[in-house]
Amino acid sequence: MARYADAVCRLCRRQGEKLFLKGERCFSPKCAIEDRNFPPGQHGNARRRKMSEHGLQLREKQKARFIYGVLERQFRRHYQEASRRPGMTGENLLQELELRLDNVVFRLGFADSRNQARQIVLHGHIALNGRKTDIPSARVRIGDVIVWAPGSVNTELFKITAKGISSKSIPDWLDLSIAQMTGRILSVPSRGQVDTKVNEQAIVEYYSR
Question: How far apart are CA 177 and CA 108, in angstroms?
Fold first, then answer.
């Protein structure tokens, strides 16, 4: 399976802002943006040039891809699905991305980052509606239940996650039972319920050109 294998901190530096790709590290002084807020590469600390309108649109598209950990072909499929649905395409796109299983695992606090959530799903630690699911891009729906697979509740990963989950902030379109470590989809998130700092209209304009 294709995946981004380079240092993810380079993605934040390329965008010039924190994308919160490494969990708790992004909130610590070790974050690369804190002392190296310039693009990676030999000439990275040169002054940034003013970007064209197309460049700004491309930047927003790339930012959304990096945040959700989606490759270009997958992202385009999400956009095409969003454009077919009634309503605003930009908001539909964010809903498509938010309702991916790996993102929901992250939002429930079962992982510190979306990258870790993807690994948890791939390794078979998550069950969706009672069935073990190892497909990070699986789309969840209202009423779906996400739990840890029975064979994973005795792992060290589960114990560490259960110990720290009470400090996590859970969006109100999800329901979490801390005692049972069970999550449920209450609704499709609206734009106001999605805290991702991305200009979705610029992404629509990029694909509509």
Answer: 10
Residue 183: which H helix or E strand, with range? strand 182-185
**Within its chain, how far is the Cα of 10 from the centroid?**
17
For residue 119, what are the contacts with CB-CB under 8 A and spacing of at least 6? Answer: none
Mean pLDDT along residues 182-195: 96
Contact 103, 68 (CB under 8 A): yes
Mean pLDDT of 42-52: 64
**Alpha helices (H) along 20-179:** 32-35, 53-68, 72-84, 89-98, 101-107, 114-122, 156-164
82 phi, psi to nearest 5 deg = -65, -40
Classify 13 as helix, strand or coil: helix
What's this model's pTM, rounded to 2 decimal places?
A: 0.79
